[in-house]
Amino acid sequence: MIPLKTDYSEFWFADQIDYAYIGKPGLSEETVREISKLKNEPEWMLENRLRGLKFFLEKPMPQWGANLNNIDFNKIIFFARATDKKGKTWEEVPEKIKNTFEKLGIPEAERKFLAGVEAQYDSETVYGHVKQELEKLGVIFCDMDTAVRKYPDIVKKYFGTIIPAGDNKFASLNTAVWSGGSFVYVPKGVKVEFPLQAYFRINRANMGQFERTLIIAEEGSSVHYIEGCTAAQYSADALHAAVVEIIAEQGAYVRYTTLQNWSKDVYNLVTKRAHAHENATVEWVDANIGSQVTMKYPSVYLMGKNSKAEILSIAMATNGQHIDAGGKVLHFAPNTSSRIISKSISVDGGHTTYRGLLHVAKGAIDVKSNIRCDALLIGDKSRSDTFPYNEINEKDVSVGHEASVGKIGDDQIFYLMSRGLNEVEAVTLIVQGFLSPFTKELPLEYAVEFNRLISLEMEGSVG
User: Fold this and answer.
1) What is the largest CA-CA distance in the chain?
2) Among 236-240, 271-275, 291-295, 370-374, which stretch is predicted with the lowest mean pLDDT?
3) How far apart are alpha carbons 57 and 320 in whole angstroms?
4) Averaged pLDDT, 380-392
């Protein structure tokens, strides 16, 4: 119908950096010990790493979902340090790295409306800043490496409790070689009015990025955390295997927003999970546009009564991409509610998959849940799959599931073209309308950026 090509070139540039340290390719106990030594970590963290390595080596490669058999762990660099000095002010960041984030709009976004920013370049954070008024309220926002050094008691209490070292093969890998990521702690009753942002950048070929993020929202607090992701384009594959753990205590509110635009040589294999306690709310707002392969299913475990979960998952795959995404909600307490909305677009032979889980435990009465999956196909070779799994162990529940698959009709395009749009503009407008439930949930600056990415996807598409 309409063959589309991708143009993300302005995000896929690579920098020529003189690295402070580059590890040898391949994974071994020596690799893990070297990472821990370079970071001067306590013994308990090294023990966690070695336990993760053991699980990783024991677990087979997953054979469900996307094809992961071409990942060669012997060629991957598991740790690279771009600079020995982390900038506390923007002027302290090395010039070449600073230019990268300037191109991506990070300082501008910080100046406009962000409460705090962490910028990670390959393995480690190179810049971090949080507004003084938040620090005075006791809010902690720093990279995970700093948190291990400065707040070891808090990190040790929660690290690996939501996603254990043996949870899955790639969570185990992250436990073994994690580096960077964000640590967020919001004290009881504190409302963070503006978003906190992290930005993750892969620059080297054959690079692995394994950030670890831990967010703790104490009773009655609230926070919105936003992350963005890009990578330089190479012919060799890169691997991104992050872990995100969220704890929302009684009455807390946490929203986690992701806008992912990896280049198409990246395997994006992420484990993200939250525990929501009594009267708490956790929301995942998750967009996946780039990467060669993505497997990502943000999850919420509703642990306390009256807790709520909302997952909005967006996937867009073009030729050569397989985006396998969705969401999971597990109801372990009564009077809990959840909603999962999945929107996917398959373009010019792209492949999208919705994979979801709804679990209602015995005793979790008066549960309300609704799942909606909508797929849009553009081009005769595009593909969309839906794999919902509902496990209901109680009778006193209300559960709904809806799914739809459609194509852009010639009559829709004709109508818009008759109003003065060309074919590309018409298709782009339809796609943006289809994705509007996601766009409406973004801060204005991010909504503009997201629509720009969609427009780039359509650029030069007719012919």
Assistant:
1) 68
2) 236-240
3) 29
4) 92
Higher pLDDT, residue 263 or 4: 263
Residue type, 417: M
Joined tokens for residue 6: 């991708």
The structure tokens listed for 357 are 């889980």
Both tokens of 80, joined, read 């690279």
Nearest to 71 by CA among 220, 364, 269: 269
Burial of 428 (0-12, 13-18, 19+ CB in 10 A): buried
Report in angstroms the alpha-carbon separations of 360 from 16, 195, 294, 392, 448: 51, 32, 27, 5, 38
Instruction: Please choose, from the candidates 236, 136, 227, 225, the residue with its C-alpha nearest in 3D space to the C-alpha of residue 184.
Output: 225
Pairwise CA distance, residues 214 & 204, whole Å: 26
Percent of the chain exceeding pLDDT 70 equals: 77
Domain boundaries, the chain: 21-296, 409-463
Q: 313 phi and psi, to 5 degrees?
A: -115, 125
Instruction: Convert the chain into a string of H (helix), E (strand) and C (coil).
Output: CCCCCCCCCCCCCCCCCCCCEECCECCCHHHHHHHHHHCCCCHHHHHHHHHHHHHHHHCCCCCCCCCCCCCCHHHCECCEECCCCCECCHHHCCHHHHHHHHHCCHHHHHHHHCCEEEEEECCEEEEEEECHHHHHCCCEEEEHHHHHHHCHHHHHHHCCCCCCCCCCHHHHHHHHHCCCCEEEEECCCCECCCCEEEEEEECCCCEEECCEEEEEECCCCEEEEEEEEEECCCCCCEEECCEEEEEECCCCEEEEEEEEECCCCEEEEEEEEEEECCCCEEEEEEEECCCCEEEECCEEEECCCCCEEEEEEEEEECCCCEEEEEEEEEECCCCCEEEEEEEEEEECCCEEEEEEEEEECCCCCCEEEEEEEEEEEECCCCEEEEEEEEEECCCCEEEEEEEEEEECCHHHHHHHHCCCCCHHHHHHHHHHHHCHHHHCCCCHHHHHHHHHHHHHHHCCCCC
Torsion, Cα of 36, 40, 45, 49 (10° steps):
0
Name the percent of the chain lying above pLDDT 90: 51
